[in-house]
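User: Predict the structure for this protein chain, please.
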Amino acid sequence: MTGEKERRLHPPRDGRQSSRSGRPLASVPVIFARFIVAPEWHREIRGRVFIGVSCSYKGEVVRSRKRRAALFPSPAEEKQMASASDAKTGRRGAGGRRPKSRRELRFRDLAEMALAEKAKSGIRKSSIRADQVRLSVLLPVIGNLRVASFKARTFAHALSEIVEQRGLSHGSFNRYHSLVSSVCAYGVREELLEVNPLSAGRVRRRSEARIHVRFLERHEQAQVLAEIRRECPVKTDEFELAILTGMRRGEQFHARWSDWKRRDSVLLVDGKTGPRQVRINQAARRCLSRMKRRARAGQIYITPERNFTAVDRRRWFERAIKKAGLASKFRWHDNRHSFCSRLAAAGVPLLQIQQLAGHKSYSTTLRYAHLSPDHQRKAVEKVRF
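Assistant: Here is the predicted structure, written as structure tokens:
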């Protein structure tokens, strides 16, 4: 069939013809038509570019919104497709945002996602806050470091620089080391990193000094107590309560009156190792009773300052320690050491001391073993010839 006969039998519907072959535009494949006709709109969906045009498709011009909706997704459908893909792959940024590519991802982004995962896993809020404080120191130094360029040498130099500039101890270096390592471990789990640059000894932890158990001698206690009574007498009961119960600083500061069970002689607290019961003896009961009589109506927390602020400063204690002129440095936590040391000196079994102090590990309680007068003697007497 000649070209002239073909044009007579199959005339173009819109009156247009191809300049080369003379064939009607309606019979041209749709993909070819999309490229020869100027595009009217386009959008990018997850890396694929779809071009929507007014084109001839099987002899009909696609112009209506319904026909375009059938070929190309709407913005709402586009968002739904992205959400479904993120849910399927499990790759979702912090706050529900679309995650960055591995090339664009930086340490601050990885740390934000790692903290979000920790919060969802049920880790204590105090631990999250401690990580946030340490990150405020780390991010100005390594926050803009790209994930693709993570190296053990880079982290080692950065941690050493932070410790030297701030005059931190080896223990503080290890805390920062653990935080950075946990962030990188999250990246490995999410397949954003191949290996953890701090694991397997690539960045070595530093040896920490042995914890020195500093407890208050009887004559030192009298000196501190005299200064507290002189400077701030209403705080005497708080100081006595700390030694009589062995509560941690945070446990005593956040303790509530509603958690004091007088009949059971216990105080329910929530501290470093989780919720626990603190045994209240007769002397501690008298301290709590005096504090309760001085408490204002509607006061929730046992420590008066906690009802107005969440920051525990206790400058009154620091001033009293300074004026007492003790031979060596004494901190509030050493009141807890005094509690455990006096139990060990009184011959209380170490396992019972662990339970009363709320130690998570028995090795922590073993620091007071040398203070027990009968501990080693009883052990040696078990040897038979």
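Residues 5-9, 12-73, 85-96 have pLDDT under 50 and may be disordered.
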